[in-house]
């Protein structure tokens, strides 16, 4: 088992990464105080892992709040329903919420924890690759509104993250691959060796080799830990975690969030952002080709959908949440393994990068 510290002063916490962690409670139960616990999970994850988690918590006061599956459930209605559940169960400030699931459950449970009685403890048990390498670490919590994703939320750090890579065995193939795109993102923005490792281990990646996954999740969390410790509230370097996301969000929005998983759209976005970096002369030629080749070996999409209009993509990117008013901020590459924040790309350059990705 690996233990990575998220160093945030009084809000510091450990991330434990290993195999069979859910049922080996001796590693993490001592880190959860003897207070009432409320598990948040969903109808897909509950039959797979709820009994194991509850078994590890024998003897404790445990309540369970189970939501239907899906991004649509990260809603205001379910947020309200969760608060009413806590009120009905008499949950007080000393309690601790446990998020068992992917990013949807983690984000919703985290926002409930951030706001219930002005903020209570919560622990993340992420069960998707995306949640293990990204969503469960760093304290961004949110729900969606009909007007847009993640529009309401708070920064609220968990007090512990327990990432059991064995849970990744039951993930749908597409969900697993989408998570791999986010792992590769860390390689692209700050870890050239991680890219080499993934290039060498394509077969083991397809096989979901546990030792390799512990290594990849741990390395990803170490990167996220150091970025978040430096810039918890995204005033600077944390924005580099959004590499590929401006193009990716535009692709997701224009396809109504139904055709691509987030990580798939980010995969295409990373290729487009690499083309733009090359064209701007920020990074040497070849980065986009190498990234694209590895993504294809991982069965991820790398080409901009032909039916998406370049003007629509540009317009959508202008509305991206990461942009400061009046400028279009993009995360580009100075090299494969080193990101930069760019505000100087012109529309025609972005258009050309989109065309090169078609
Ligand atoms: P998700 O939570 O919807 O999980 C994907 C699917 O996998 C769901 O159907 C889920 O029920 C299922 N699932 C979860 N664990 C499983 C397992 N072990 N075996 C089988 N099926 C399993 O989606 P996600 O990709 O984990 O997360 C996406 C969400 O995370 C989005 O809402 C996004 O906004 C958010 N997010 C948040 C952050 C952050 O920093 N807070 C970062 C990235 C993404
Ligand atoms: N997922 C990007 C971040 O946590 O900042």
Summarize the structure in words.
This protein folds into two domains: 2-170, Rossmann fold; 173-356, Up-down Bundle (Dehydroquinate synthase-like, alpha domain), CATH 1.20.1090. It is 43% helix and 18% strand. It has helices spanning 46-56, 76-88, 103-115, 129-135, 173-190, 192-200, 202-206, 210-230, 245-254, 262-279, 287-297, 310-318, 347-356, and strands spanning 2-6, 13-18, 37-42, 62-67, 96-101, 121-126, 140-145, 148-155, 160-164, 330-335, 338-342. The strands form three sheets. A seven-stranded mixed beta sheet has the order 1-2-9-6-5-3-4, with helices on both faces. A two-stranded antiparallel ribbon has the order 7-8. It has a two-stranded antiparallel ribbon with strand order 10-11. The model has no long low-confidence stretch (mean pLDDT 96). Bound molecules: nicotinamide-adenine-dinucleotide and glycine. Residues 134, 138, 140, 234, 238, 241 line the site of glycine.
């Amino acid at each position: 088992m690996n233990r990575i510290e998220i160093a945030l002063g009084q809000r510091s916490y450990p991330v434990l990464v290993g195999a069979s962690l859910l049922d080996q409670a001796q590693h993490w139960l001592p880190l959860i105080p003897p207070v009432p616990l409320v598990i948040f999970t969903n109808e897909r994850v509950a039959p797979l892992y709820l009994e194991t988690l509850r078994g590890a918590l024998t003897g404790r006061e445990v309540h369970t709040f189970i939501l239907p599956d899906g991004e649509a459930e990260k809603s205001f209605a379910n947020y309200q329903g969760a608060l009413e559940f806590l009120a009905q169960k008499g949950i007080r400030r000393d309690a601790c919420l446990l998020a068992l699931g992917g990013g949807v459950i983690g984000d919703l449970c985290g926002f409930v924890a951030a706001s219930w009685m002005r903020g209570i403890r919560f622990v993340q048990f992420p069960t998707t690759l995306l949640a293990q390498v990204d969503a469960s670490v760093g304290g961004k919590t949110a729900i969606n509104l009909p007007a847009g994703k993640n529009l309401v939320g708070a920064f609220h750090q968990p007090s512990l993250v327990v990432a059991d890579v064995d849970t990744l065995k039951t993930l749908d193939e597409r969900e697993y691959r989408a998570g791999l795109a986010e792992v590769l993102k860390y390689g692209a923005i700050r870890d050239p060796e991680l890219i080499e490792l993934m290039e060498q281990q394509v077969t083991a990646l397809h096989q979901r080799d546990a030792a390799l996954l512990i290594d990849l999740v741990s390395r990803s969390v170490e990167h996220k830990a150091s970025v978040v410790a430096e810039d918890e509230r995204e005033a600077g370097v944390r924005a580099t975690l959004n590499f590929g996301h401006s193009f990716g969000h535009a692709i997701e929005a224009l396809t109504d969030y139904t055709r691509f998983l987030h990580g798939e759209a980010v995969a295409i976005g990373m290729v487009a952002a690499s083309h733009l970096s090359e064209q701007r002369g920020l990074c040497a030629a070849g980065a986009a080709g190498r990234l694209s080749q590895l993504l294809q070996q991982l069965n991820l999409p790398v080409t901009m959908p032909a039916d998406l209009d370049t003007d629509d993509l540009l317009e959508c990117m202008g509305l991206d949440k990461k942009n400061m008013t009046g400028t279009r901020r993009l995360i580009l590459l100075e090299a494969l393994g080193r990101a930069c924040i760019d505000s100087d790309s012109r529309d025609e350059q972005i258009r050309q990068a989109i065309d090169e990705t078609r």
